[in-house]
Design brief:
mainly alpha; 78% helix; globular
């Protein structure tokens, strides 16, 4: 008699299959568990992200209250946009030439000093608008350097096989800050005034500076060149020669320039919805709430085969949701819901874009390429604020939002048609077996590889 006791495969219960599918949805927190420096970096950045959002909220609110003009808020955004243009590329060049941890420490200390200066100016009986604008310029410039260096540091804090998960966690970090920050800013402004909001931001830098002091230095690798115009030109030349990276930048600019109505939030909260500073904080935080939910359920992103197509669809969904927001100005709860949906679509596209850029860029160029990417993202959103404010002053607030959202969708479709490499592109999964379970098994096995294992071509 045969001793073979094998029988038909055991069927998993419906509950087990449901649990497995749910686990596939949850964001992968492996870098936080396994990578000590990344865990400190992520935690410190979360605290500072909340404070930065508090200051951004308070600045827009104070300028609108002092002037009563959405154009003034747009002008503030223009000043910050100029600062981003002036400092982002320089920050990328510095990131590739010096210890990135040290550069981050200097930038964080400078940003803390800027927030303390805002406290002093805003406590005056009649706050000086020029002084607020100058400090906004300085803060935006330092923030541009900080963002370029910070983005280029992440691939040095985690092994390459965990980079997509770390980038998703970065988005989760930023969106959590964007939820808590504006809402907290609205509450603080209502309770103790604008100076208290700036003071809260200054205090949060203690967390990020402490985290940076704990992690190891991040010196440039062999082959790094000195900072300067030649290094900046090299980074620009690299980006211009990569159609895939250009398409990611173009689709981001389309979405942010045409579909960013945040400069209209003070007027919407105070004049249309009539919900006061607390409601303004809710409007500002709503996109981040949707983004947080999307990121908590982002475990399915590594399972995608057609990531380029998913990027196009997610940006188009952002445009549709912004259009819906403009149509729903008669209902504050529905408008907030539309903004949350927009935030969810936006963060998915952000993860896909940043992963594409990071994996297409060698480390010796990563600071400069990241600075170009971050400059595009920051300048696009600020140009979007300006565009929304100008159009609102001409055609009205509601028309500005609706037209921007619709043009965003049309622009995304045009980019997809003009650069067919984007909808055809895949990330990481080209060599993985077909089927969700097979690909998940393969991805999980990759995550367990030693840190120095090179899995990329």
């Amino acid at each position: 008699m045969s001793d073979d006791h094998s029988g038909p495969p055991v069927r998993r219960s419906r509950g087990h299959r449901a649990k497995h599918r749910f686990q596939n949805l949850i964001v992968d927190a492996t870098p936080l568990r396994l990578d000590h420096d990344y865990r400190w970096w992520w935690s410190g950045q979360l605290v500072t992200a909340i404070g930065n959002q508090v200051t951004r909220t308070a600045l827009r609110y104070q300028i609108f209250v002092l002037t009563g003009s959405v154009l003034a808020v747009g002008a503030l955004t223009l000043v910050q946009f100029i600062a981003v243009l002036a400092f982002a590329l320089v920050g990328g060049s510095i990131a590739d030439a010096f210890d990135r941890r040290r550069v981050l420490l200097v930038a964080q200390i400078g940003m803390c000093a800027t927030s303390l200066s805002l406290v002093v100016v805003s406590q005056m009986g009649a706050p000086s608008i020029p002084a607020l604008v100058v400090l906004a310029f300085v803060g935006a410039g330092l923030g541009a350097v900080d963002l370029a260096v910070r983005g280029s540091a992440v691939p040095r804090l985690v092994p390459r096989q965990r980079l997509p998960s770390a980038l998703a966690l970065n988005q989760l970090n930023g969106r959590m800050g964007a939820i808590v920050g504006p809402a907290l800013g609205g509450v603080v402004i209502a309770a103790i005034g604008v100076p208290g909001a700036f003071a809260l931001d200054a205090a949060t830098f203690i967390g990020s500076i402490t985290a940076l002091l704990v992690i190891r230095p991040i010196p440039p690798l062999d082959g790094a060149r000195r900072a300067g115009l030649a290094a900046i030109r090299e980074g620009l030349s690299f980006v211009l020669g990569r159609r895939l990276i250009l398409s990611a930048l173009a689709i981001d600019l389309i979405a942010t320039i045409l579909g960013t109505p945040t400069s209209l939030f003070p007027a919407l909260a105070l004049d249309i919805f009539k919900v006061g500073p607390t409601g303004f904080g809710v409007l500002s935080a709503a996109p981040a709430v949707g983004a947080l939910i999307a990121m908590l359920l982002s475990g399915w992103i590594p399972l995608l085969r057609r990531t380029g197509r998913a990027l196009i669809l997610s940006v188009a969904a952002w445009g549709v949701a912004i259009t819906a927001f403009g149509l729903l100005t008669f209902s504050f709860p529905l408008a907030v819901l539309a903004l949350a949906v927009a935030g969810g679509a936006d963060v998915i596209s952000s993860v896909l874009r940043s992963t594409l850029v990071q994996f297409e860029t060698p480390d010796e160029l990563r600071g400069r390429v990241t600075s170009i990417y971050s400059m595009s993202a920051q300048s696009g959103s600020r140009l979007g604020d300006i565009e929304a404010a100008v159009l609102a002053s001409i055609a009205g607030i509601q028309a500005s939002i609706i037209v921007g959202g619709m043009l965003c969708v049309l622009g995304v479709l045009a980019i997809a048609r003009a650069i067919p490499e984007l909808p055809a592109h895949t990330i990481l999964v080209d060599n993985l077996p077909r089927g969700r379970r097979a690909r998940r098994t393969q991805i999980e096995s990759i995550a367990r590889l030693p840190p120095d294992t090179d899995i990329l071509p």
